[in-house]
Amino acid sequence: MKLVSFEVSTSIGPLHGIGAISQGKIIDLNMGYTCYLADKRGSYIAYELASVIVPPDMIAFLRSGQEGMEAARTAVDYVVRKQAKSTVVGPMGERVVYEMSEVKLKAPVPRPNSLRDYLAFEGHASLSGLRQLDKAWYEIPVCYKGNPDTVIAPEETIPWPSYSDLLDYELEYGIYIGKEGKNIPRERAEEYIAGYTIFNDISARDIQMQEMAVGLGPVKGKDFCSIMGPCLVTPDEIDPSNLKMIARINGEVWSENNSGTSYWSWAQIIEFASMEETLYPGDFLGSGTVEKGCGGELNRWLQPGDIIELEVEGIGVLRNRVGEKPPKRTFTR
User: Fold this and answer.
1) How far apart are CA 54 and CA 65, in angstroms?
2) Domain boundaries 115-322, corresponding CATH code
3) Which phi-psi region, left, alpha or beta, contains residue 240 (left: φ > 0; alpha: ψ -120 to 50)?
4) pLDDT band at 44, cuts 50/70/90?
5) Are 202 and 208 within 8 A, CB to CB?
6) N or C: lower Cβ tally within 10 Å for the chain?
């Protein structure tokens, strides 16, 4: 399935929900499952059961585990069959199916519990072999922890931080954790992956390099914006070892690579991340940038108004526009 978090305008304000993309439309999973249950058990209990098993919030849905995923598939199958005969509506006349143009997609998990971004691609870490990596890089998968409160959605404008002159994109993808776990062996790691999405790790390179020269960070170089979307693709529909990845700026291809060039596997990353630390449904883990997957490696820099499109095979296209550059701010002691 391709799962989304979405917002739709109504006469009483915005409605938020989770859905599945099917036949070019979005099926509201909570309402779709409500319709299914109403046929089986009556409309009153249908609302209560659906709100528990397929709640309209992605993290709450992921917490419902395999039962929730199976219920979501049931809802999609039910709605598709019914839709072939007539328009599907909820027990009280609610909308169930939306055109893509009617909704605003949010990040698949609008506010992840946590955000870890790894450095899994040797080509990017070594600047295509120009930099000698420490032996520790080959011994453990390393990451930085980002800011889950500054995740933005597809089509949202990327804020340009006032303290930076060098704004950069990063061509990445990532996973959402779907099951709570600690000390997870790599042989069972796939059980904990809810799905995959595209990740654009927007970076302010000048201040990033400045703060990392001290031996910590990045913080200000990253924490102002991260982008995820357009959907969460469940593991049964994707092969993460061979995904074509492309970055386009204003329609021009700047970066092109493949997920299969990663040095670290997701199984290894999950095993290490969960060592004496609990992973929870809704946690996000990023792959890091593919080789030559950012402007910094190409000495090409983003400008205000640029349109960034990151495409990952099997997931889709993540598109955003770069915002205006504000007056420069500097920090002094």
Assistant:
1) 10
2) 3.90.850.10
3) alpha
4) confident
5) no
6) C
- C-alpha to C-alpha distances, 271 to 102, 119, 279, nearest whole angstrom: 41, 15, 10
Per DSSP bridges, beta strands 2-10 and 226-233 are antiparallel
Torsion 66-68-71-76 (CA) sign: negative
**DSSP 3-state percent helix, strand, coil across the chain (nearest 5):** 30, 30, 40
Mind listing the pLDDT tens digit for each residue in 102-130? Answer: 999 999 999 999 999 999 999 999 999 89
**Contact 122/70 with Cβ under 8 angstroms?**
no
- List, as own/partner pairs, every contact residues 206-211 make where C-beta atoms lie below 8 angstroms and the sequence separation is at least 24, other chains included: 206/164, 206/165, 206/166, 207/161, 207/163, 207/164
Q: Give the β-pairing of 13-22 and 25-28.
A: antiparallel
Cis peptide before 141 (omega within 30 of 0): no
The answer to whether residues 175 and 193 touch, using CB atoms and an 8 Å cutoff, is yes
Q: What is the mean pLDDT of residues 126-136?
A: 93
pLDDT digits (tens, 9 = 90+) for 188-229: 999 999 999 999 999 999 999 999 999 888 999 999 999 999
Q: In the chain, what are the domain boundaries?
A: 2-105, 115-322
Burial class of residue 85, CB neighbours in 10 A (0-12, 13-18, 19+): exposed
Angle between helix 65-83 and 29-41 (nearest 10)? 80
Residue 128: per-residue pLDDT: 92
Find out if CATH 2.30.30 is the number for domain 2-105: yes
